[in-house]
Amino acid sequence: MAKNLDVVLLADYYGEMLTENQRKFIEYYYNDDLSLSEIAQNEGITRQGVRDAVKRAEAQLYDMENKLGFAERSRKVNEVLNSIRESTEAINNYNMSFSLSREVNDAVVSIKSAIDSLDE
Questions:
Q1: CATH code for the domain of 38
Q2: Are residues 61 and 15 in the same domain?
Q3: pTM of the predicted protein model
Q4: Which of 51, 64, 81, 100 has the fewest CB atoms within 10 Å, measured from its CB?
Q5: Tens place of pLDDT for every residue, the chain, 120 residues?
Q6: Is 18 exposed, middle or buried (0-12, 13-18, 19+ CB in 10 A)?
Q7: Would you call 2 helix, strand, or coil by DSSP?
Q8: Measured torsion, CA atoms of residues 37, 42, 46, 50, in degrees rounded to the nearest 10
Q9: Is the same domain home to 33 and 63?
Q10: In terms of domains, do 78 and 52 share one?
Q11: Would you say residue 26 lies in a domain?
């Protein structure tokens, strides 16, 4: 079973909606990098039981993302924030090189502060 790292991100968003065992198995498999056999041995169940639980959890995570779209929305917001950050830096560099407008500098500082507050 190939490990899909998107599952880790989706588990961050939707993991609380999984059963305790599904959440635990996803954690062991993806974050702790345990094999299905190792998880099965530690939990006292069959490897197939662990595999089925992981597959069900993955399917539920993808289904929730398809319905709710929080992870994709977050990715888009971060992409836009990075674009704003780059544009703000370009404006700041231009201002410092050519016009030295205090108003532009204050606006740049305000925008950077707003972006930083969203990154927290």
A1: 1.10.10.10
A2: yes
A3: 0.76
A4: 100
A5: 656 769 999 999 999 999 999 999 999 999 999 999 999 999 999 999 999 999 999 999 999 999 999 999 999 999 999 999 999 999 999 999 988 899 999 999 999 999 999 876
A6: buried
A7: coil
A8: -70
A9: yes
A10: no
A11: yes
